[in-house]
Amino acid sequence: MKIKITGASGYLGKAVSKILTENAHSVSAISRETLYGSNKNLQAELSGCDVVIHLAGAPILQRWTKKNKKQILESRSITTQNLVDAINSLPSELQPKKFISASAVGIYKTGAFHNEDSTNFDDGFLGTVAKNWEKPIVELPPRTKKIIFRIGVVIGKNAKLISGLLLPFKLGLGAKIGTGKQPFPFIHENDLVRAFCWAVEEYNENNTFNLVAPEPTNNKTFTKALAAQLKRPAIFVIPVFLIKIVLGEAAVLLTESPEVSSEKIINAGFQFKYSNIYSALKEILG
Length: 286
What we know:
Elements: E1 2-6, H1 11-22, E2 26-29, H2 32-36, H3 39-46, E3 51-54, H4 66-89, E4 98-104, E5 113-114, H5 125-134, E6 145-151, E7 153-155, H6 160-170, E8 175-177, E9 186-188, H7 189-201, E10 207-211, H8 219-229, E11 236-238, H9 240-247, H10 252-255, E12 259-260, H11 263-267, H12 277-285
Parallel strand pairs: 1-2, 1-3, 3-4, 4-6, 5-12, 6-10, 7-9, 8-11
């Protein structure tokens, strides 16, 4: 299939492009200039492709200054709207058959359990970003199947979270954050790219899926599992106030999280290879 992908130079974009190319698909990137440029140029880029995969978005784990917030929001909402407008401007026979977009579990309110039927959305910045990310997709033409993945924390050999934690944990400085009871809805990077491949090759309905490992875990369990895999202690606690000093408002990314179910995508036919934090970390670090 002919596949167009945004965010192709990013961490997830590279991984998804690689597996699809290995599966003999024709994969090409939509440049940032084209994505933010004229509708006519974006139409030309999308014309006749089979699948659009939308992964573009500025990094969210940074201090949320006014400037950064604007970039985080617009890099998702404006780009999605531009893609939708360009697709709607194409003749029906040249419109893509599928539109597969990333979103985030941050759409859900923390302190509660959610499946995809939940409308108990976060009313802060994270919820605003995710809702505006997804909103334009409903405007796509009926012939284009719409698949949204609400993604949890991605862990893997190339994930910044894991690479950033390795040194302190190897030095025996591993620590949970606060009580450690906050949920940690994660997904192994290999399961993530497999899910996008599954959506391209096998799934042919309109749907929204939570993309997180099936077995729930929390920050404390993640900390213990990472320390155990590295055979090092993890006895320290990072107070929440220190995270807030470093990250400001963005501290919620590490100190709060919703609990999220992935039962729906399993029932739709997708099988996770790394269903719990222990199997995931063993593959990453074993």
